[in-house]
Specification:
- The protein has helices at about 35-55, 80-90, and strands spanning about 10-15, 25-30, 60-65, 70, 75-80.
- It is of the alpha/beta class.
- It has one domain (about 10-90).
- The termini are close together.
């Protein structure tokens, strides 16, 4: 994992690191509950900023129980519960 400080909040980036950040695969935000308007704004906009910075088409917000997909500024934002994300990603590690 590599952590990068951007203007807004960004939680995690998954990258291939044999050479310093040669390829970024995904950006992840983590938030237990994004039902609060300010929290959702911060998480989604932080994710979009990171996606723009690394030229990625989509990112994920890991939540406690929400399944949702939306497009913001041309970027696909997928919200999924932690249990689902863990099951979907167990073969990657």
């Amino acid at each position: 994992m590599v952590f990068v400080k951007l203007t807004l909040s960004t939680d995690l980036f998954e990258a291939n690191l044999p050479v310093l950040c040669t390829r970024l695969y995904t950006e992840i935000q983590v938030c237990f509950d994004i039902s609060d308007v300010k929290t959702k704004f911060r998480k989604v906009n932080g994710l979009v900023e990171g996606l723009d910075f690394f030229d990625l088409p989509k990112g994920t917000i890991i939540t406690s129980d929400l399944f949702h997909e939306e497009t913001v500024n041309g970027k696909v934002i997928q919200s999924v519960p932690l249990w689902y994300w863990l099951l979907e990603n167990e073969h990657h590690h």
